[in-house]
Specification:
By secondary structure, the protein is mainly α. The chain is built from 3 helices and no strands.
Length: about 110
């Protein structure tokens, strides 16, 4: 590897580190006491706990449905069973819900 390639690689790593640092700093600023539009961490934590419970309930429901399918129609071994994907669930729906709730916070 030439000296130029080595320096370019080092520069790329530093740029990636800088981007990560800026991203984390921006996220922390959302909760910083000096930020006039700061997010209430307690409220956000409670929202995440609610979302977590909702996800756990949905997982339990899907697992129950899988068990019912396995009991009735699966002729393969468990290793051969493919877990069905629920196409009706939008994978970004929870992200949108959380973002919308965060936008509606009174600060």
């Amino acid at each position: 590897m030439s000296k130029k390639q080595q320096l370019e690689g080092q520069k790329t790593e530093l740029i990636n580190d800088l981007m990560a640092t800026v991203t984390i700093s921006e996220e922390l600023w959302s909760y910083h006491p000096d930020n006039p539009k700061k997010i209430d961490i307690t409220v956000e934590y409670e929202k995440l706990q609610t979302i977590k419970k909702d996800i756990e309930v949905e997982i339990d429901e899907i697992e129950e449905e899988i068990k019912n399918l396995k009991g009735g129609i699966n002729t393969y071994g468990d290793d051969d069973w493919a877990t069905p994907i629920n196409d009706s669930i939008d994978s970004t729906e929870l992200d949108r819900q959380w973002a919308n709730e965060s936008d509606n916070l009174e600060i």
